[in-house]
């Protein structure tokens, strides 16, 4: 028997605009930094882009029908800023707004409550040309965009997430350049972290002012990874503590406590202006965690540019992406986070959790992804155990509904419950889809 979750728990799936929509220049959409970045030779391993992706822009009704079959009651998607404002400012595009009207209405017709992310990495290129997230002016534009979507969709959207994974944006996008906009500024990237946190706060304020007819539920979706020192050598322990501050603390403590961790403060200090920390620390209706795996950190040798490095985690199953499968670490993270923050911690949501396996349909058209079933079972059980220990977790959104464009990995990593043939756009629910459907159905039976 599957573990029983509290009534009202959201079992969902999660996606992002650039990874699934395609139609990158349809209906007046402006270019984003991902359109630019994917055109650079070598930026994406298979030379691909999100230009077509899952063609969800045209096939959204079929995709929402699949969610209905799955029986999920939640769907986390993202709104493409350059579809709403092609250059990141000015009057909204009626066709862009109309697409998300259709998507949201379709979800509600299938009993699926929308969770909208405002920024899942597709910055309008025009704003990047003015400095992107290094430029404080981008925050003002983001707040205006938030007010537009809050006003338009606020009556129907259950949950809001202003920014997806500010740490991944800062580090992958601006510090090492593996993601758009492809800048490799190392520690000079740190103002981006502060600006993204401010953008979160300004968007939360704008949403609370613009949503009509209901009180919006506003949270975040931060990527967190428990950090394991490579050994008990003090050098490894110290390197782990520093990287933990950069990856986890720098983004969590300002949102929940209104301050940066002491040992990372010098890195952002120059970017902070009066009142910023109050703007960042807006009340949160939920704290969303995107969890994939723990990371193992060691100190580096004398000739290396950075003081820390990643070391392999051995002794656990591995996804095809090479990420270790450690569901206990999710349970630990939930339990420890509650213990650390107590009253400062809002209800938690797992806003992403999932795994990549390169499994194709067999001769009968069956996609036998037992490893994903094991992954989901382990991680849902980890959440159930944390709830039993008193942690208030309200939802689990599986990454992802369907195979999609996995950023710098292109189409080589398949995270979906639904297989997508990118030549024909045929969707094939995998065995894991069926497993999740039965899991959700069992919860409904408990409730009766
Ligand atoms: C997240 N890392 O990205 C994103 O929110 C999704 O868009 C993405 O498809 C998913 O996880 C799977 O990768 C991440 O370097 C990208 O640790 C990189 C990292 C973590 C998450």
From TrEMBL:
Keywords: Carbohydrate metabolism, Cellulose degradation, Glycosidase, Hydrolase, Polysaccharide degradation. This is Beta-glucosidase. The active site is at 165 (proton donor), 352 (nucleophile). Substrate binds at residues 19, 120, 164, 292, 399, 406-407. GO terms for cellular component: cytosol. Coiled coil: none annotated. Its EC number is 3.2.1.21. Belongs to the glycosyl hydrolase 1 family. GO terms for molecular function: beta-glucosidase activity. GO terms for biological process: cellulose catabolic process. It comes from Nocardioides anomalus. It catalyses: Hydrolysis of terminal, non-reducing beta-D-glucosyl residues with release of beta-D-glucose. The keyword Hydrolase applies.
């Amino acid at each position: 028997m599957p573990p029983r979750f509290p009534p009202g728990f959201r079992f969902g799936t999660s996606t992002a605009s650039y990874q699934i929509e395609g139609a990158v220049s349809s209906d007046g959409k402006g270019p984003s930094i991902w359109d630019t970045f994917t055109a650079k030779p070598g930026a994406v391993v298979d030379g691909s882009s999100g230009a077509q992706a899952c063609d969800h822009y045209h096939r959204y009704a079929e995709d929402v029908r699949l969610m209905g079959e799955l029986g999920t009651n939640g769907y986390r998607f993202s709104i493409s800023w350059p579809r709403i404002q092609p250059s990141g400012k000015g009057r909204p595009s009626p066709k862009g707004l109309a697409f998300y009207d259709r998507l949201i209405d379709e979800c509600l017709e299938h009993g699926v409550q929308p969770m909208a992310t405002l920024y899942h990495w597709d910055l309008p290129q025009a704003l990047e040309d003015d400095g992107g997230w290094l430029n404080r002016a981008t925050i003002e534009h983001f707040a205006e965009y938030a007010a537009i979507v809050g006003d338009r969709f606020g009556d129907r959207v259950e949950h809001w997430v202003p920014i997806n994974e500010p740490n991944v944006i800062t580090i992958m996008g601006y510090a090492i350049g593996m993601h758009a906009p492809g800048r490799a500024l190392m520690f000079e990237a740190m103002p981006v972290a502060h600006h993204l946190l401010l953008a979160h706060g300004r968007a939360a304020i704008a949403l609370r002012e613009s949503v009509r007819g209901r009180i919006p539920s506003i949270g975040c979706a931060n990527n967190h990874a428990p950090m394991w020192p490579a050994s008990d050598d003090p050098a490894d322990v110290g390197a782990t503590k520093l990287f933990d501050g950069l990856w986890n603390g720098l983004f969590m403590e300002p949102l929940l406590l209104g301050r940066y961790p002491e040992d990372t403060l010098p890195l952002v200090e120059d970017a902070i202006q009066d009142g910023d920390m109050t703007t960042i620390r807006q009340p949160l209706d939920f704290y969303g965690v995107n969890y994939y795996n723990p990371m193992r950190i060691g100190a580096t040798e004398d000739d290396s540019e950075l003081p820390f490095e990643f070391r392999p985690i051995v002794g656990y199953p591995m996804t095809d992406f090479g990420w270790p499968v450690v569901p206990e670490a999710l349970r630990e993270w939930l339990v420890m986070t509650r213990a650390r923050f107590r009253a400062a911690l809002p209800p938690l949501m797992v806003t992403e959790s999932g795994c990549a396996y390169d499994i194709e349909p067999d001769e009968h058209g069956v996609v036998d992804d037992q490893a994903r079933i094991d992954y989901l079972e382990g991680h849902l059980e980890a959440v159930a155990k944390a709830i039993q220990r008193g942690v208030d977790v309200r939802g689990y959104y599986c990454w992802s509904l369907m195979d999609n464009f996995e950023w710098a990995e292109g189409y080589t990593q398949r995270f979906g419950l639904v297989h997508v043939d990118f030549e024909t756009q045929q969707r094939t629910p995998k065995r894991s889809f069926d497993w999740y459907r039965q899991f959700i159905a069992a919860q409904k039976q408990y409730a009766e």
